[in-house]
Amino acid sequence: MLTAILHTTFLTSDLSKSRAFYEGVLGLRPDSNRPKMSYEGMWYEVADKQQIHLMFLPNPEAGLQRPAHCGRDRHVALAVDDLAKLIERLELSEIAYTLSSSGRRALFCRDLDGNALEFIGNN
Question: What residues pair up with 116 in beta bridges, in sequence order?
Answer without folding.
Answer: 75, 110
